[in-house]
Amino acid sequence: MAEPTYEELKERLANLEKQQGTRRTGSLEFRVGEKGGVSVYGLGRFPVTLYYEQWIRLLDASDKLREFLEENKSKLKLKDQ
Length: 81
What we know:
This protein is of the alpha+beta class. The chain has three helices and three strands, in the order H-E-E-E-H-H. A hairpin with a 5-residue loop joins strand 1 (about 30) and strand 2 (about 40). The longest helix is centred in the first third of the chain and has 18 residues, at about 5-25. The chain is elongated and about 60 Å long.
């Protein structure tokens, strides 16, 4: 296999930087993995992966979770806005 040229490497680097730039915008990306789980990218360094039933349970508890977060906000570490 031939070594990539300088121009090819430069193009690959530009594409990688462009991809990283889009992830830093705070937007979330969803993907279905090969084992059937749904992964959410953009929350932190690593994706969060759950199966369908788990996502439904979490979504059903969203009001309860939001209430819990508000009640415990003073104890939580918050990022500076």
